[in-house]
Amino acid sequence: MKMGERSFxxxxxxxxxxxxxxxxxxxxxxxxxxxxxxxxxxxxxxxxRLIHEHEAVYDEIxxxxxxxxxxxxxxxx
Length: 77
Ligand SMILES: [Zn+2]
Prior knowledge:
This protein is α+β, with helices and mostly antiparallel strands. It has helices spanning 15-21, 68-76, and strands at residues 10-12, 36-41, 49-52, 56-59, 64-67.
């Protein structure tokens, strides 16, 4: 693992993650090998989870990803 790089919590589904995660918390669909995913906060309880990159928004303020639905809900209220 390289240290000191600007590390966005962004990764790609490998076999280990595929076995462990199975489905995406944001859309409920199964992951596929090679899917770009990000560690994001969302409407679920508990810590950030890996979801498809296109279902998350990068929030500059908190330097973290947020599930798109959750982000829009927060902004709208
Ligand atoms: Zn998804």
